[in-house]
From TrEMBL:
It comes from Tenacibaculum geojense. This is Lipoprotein.
Amino acid sequence: MKIIISSFCFVILLFVGCSDTKSIIDKKEATDQETDQQELITLFSDIKTEAESISCINANEWSFTAYGSKACGGPQGYIAYPKSNETSFLEKVTIYTNLEKAYNKKWNIFSTCDIAAKPTGVECKNGKPNLIY
């Protein structure tokens, strides 16, 4: 029951937005690391699904953004997205990034300290966006 309530609150915050995305992960009382990690996986899966839901025909209609938070600092990587839904998409990515930062702190996560290469643009190949480096 607690998991259902927790998941419900998480979904509500995604749709309503929140000024304190710092967090759901921080505010949960009795969660375990696996549950927190699964929430991150689910949210990133939703982000990827949204980004991949539109065919890439014209690269000018696409952009990219950093996502996630490495424990050592910096983003996990970059993701291409259609500009048609930019505001909503970037809000989800910001929520994800803040939640991952809180997760790393809460669970004392370690990571590599390499820096994800920043793309220079997006190109369309076979209907899919590809980052250009």
